[in-house]
Amino acid sequence: MLLEYFIFGLSTFLMRGAQCEETEVFAEVGSQAVLPCKCNPSSPFIPSIVWSKANKGTVWRKQKSGLQYWGSSWSSKGTQRIQCPHGQFERGDFHLQINNVMGEDGGVYSCRVEHRDQVTVNVVILRIIEVSVSSSVSIWGNDVSISCNVTPWPYGASVHWMLNNSPFVPQTENASNKDTTKSVVREKATARLAGNWTCVMDYKGKEGRASAALTVKGIIHPSKDNTQVYAALASAITLPCVFSPGLIPSNLAWEKLKPEFLFKPAPSRLPASFSQSPPFSQRPFDKSATLKEVGFEDAGRYRCSGTIEGQRLTRNMQLVVAKIDSLSKKTGSVTLTCQLTDTSKVTDYEWVHVIYDLNGTQSVRSIQKGETLIINKVSEEDQGEWTCRFYGKEGILGNVTYNIQLMSGLSGQKSSGGSHNTAAVVGLGFLLLVLLLILAQMYKNHQRRKRIFQYPALETIVHTVSNEREQRNQLKK
To answer: Which residues form the signal peptide (predicted)?
Structure first.
């Protein structure tokens, strides 16, 4: 850089009557750079214009005769990368355009405009800025570095990083991150680092920007450890474990972690209804598992792991099971309590009474807040589904449903068909009374016979007297 400024000062000293101006220009690799060169047009004649680069000679020049010359090193595949638009000459604008700039294009340029005896010199320092990533596609957990390179480097410039249009704050402290220039970021690849990286450089009131994309592949769902999955008791639930498309893990394993091992989790037995092959997914990178019927004891932490390119990727998640405890009293009141195995993320509860009409259309009749719902006197209007919805800071987390059935001991409003039910009960009672009377008469006759059979001698005398009476009657005849 000192040599370049020396060349600029020497050229200025050797040019009599020359007016000099210095400008800083930043351009991203692959873009178009515009090098300014302006002077006051004091002559109607065509000036002589020479653009040159330090240590590289002439870039482009235009003689007073109108002839143009391009430097031999400024063409790419037969196409000139530089041009100086003639339409701006009348206004004293002789800027140079460099298309598809490369890192080696950075350096000190000079524009010399000669109007007869007046010479104007503009010096432009072109700095090419480029962001490079150690690997544009990184596997989760691998080391990744993002570098901001500028040619030539502006000593004393400040650098800061933007990730997806937001300021980036490193989570790890290492030698490069402590550097005052902060031109290099080194981190472990996670989903947090994925996206568009932009290096923003400030120097002498000028700002340069360059960007590069970073893709991180691994377990994309859930995107972070200890994600909570909510399920209602006795329902089916999917434990997600989805890898990036195109990644097919080997040595896949699912484990349930014992709660007592906090720092070094140890595996325990998986639930009986656990299945590692979800029937709905045919994608080879989807390694989610299902529980066909969740039990309250199935709550806890689960771990999914697989090997990608020699790197063992794991994801821990927590299954939270919800149920409704009910308490009924003889007075007809019912108390429903929404119970979860972990309430650390729950901020609010909401009770919804779900009603279905004859067409199956769902409607909501009432909504109440709180973990516990108390119905003082259950009526026919209260029967049906009661759903407890639980919410977190980011919205609804899940729900669980309880069905209230109207019992005979519970009081309530009579329906329009009550008179028909009363008549049916009265008729049934009359028939029952008649049946009881018949049974009573039969029992009475049975008891009478039983008393007679207890005295067989008396029965013989009665029969003998009866026979003699019949014989006397026959003799008289």
So the answer is: 1-20
| Domain limits, the chain | 2-125, 134-217, 219-320, 329-404
Please, are residues 103 and 28 in contact by the beta-carbon 8 Å criterion? no
Express each pLDDT in 52-79 by its tens digit. 999 888 999 988 887 888 887 887 777 7
CA distance 110 to 60: 11
pLDDT tens column, 392-404: 999 999 999 999 8
Q: Which CATH architecture group holds 219-320? A: Sandwich (2.60)
Q: What is the mean pLDDT of residues 124-143?
A: 92
3-state helix, strand, coil in the chain (%, to 5): 20, 45, 35
390's enclosing H/E stretch is: strand 384-392
Cis peptide before 44, with omega less than 30 degrees from 0?
no
Residue 254 to residue 444: CA distance in whole angstroms? 78
| CATH code of the region 2-125 | 2.60.40.10
Nearest to 8 by CA among 83, 111, 84: 111
Position 159 confidence tier, pLDDT thresholds 50, 70, 90: very high
Indicate the length of the chain as a whole number. Answer: 477
Cα separation, 199 vs 126, whole angstroms:
17
**Burial label, 17 (beta-carbon count in 10 A; 0-12, 13-18, 19+):** exposed
Considering the segment(s) 329-404 as one domain, its CATH architecture is Sandwich (2.60)
Per-position DSSP letters for 3-50, written without gaps between them: HHHHHHHHHHHHSTT-EEEEEEEEEETTS-EEE--B-----SSPPEEE
The pTM assigned to this predicted structure is: 0.64
Relative to beta strand 19-28, strand 118-133 is parallel
> What are the C-alpha distances in Å from 410 to residues 277, 345, 378?
47, 37, 6
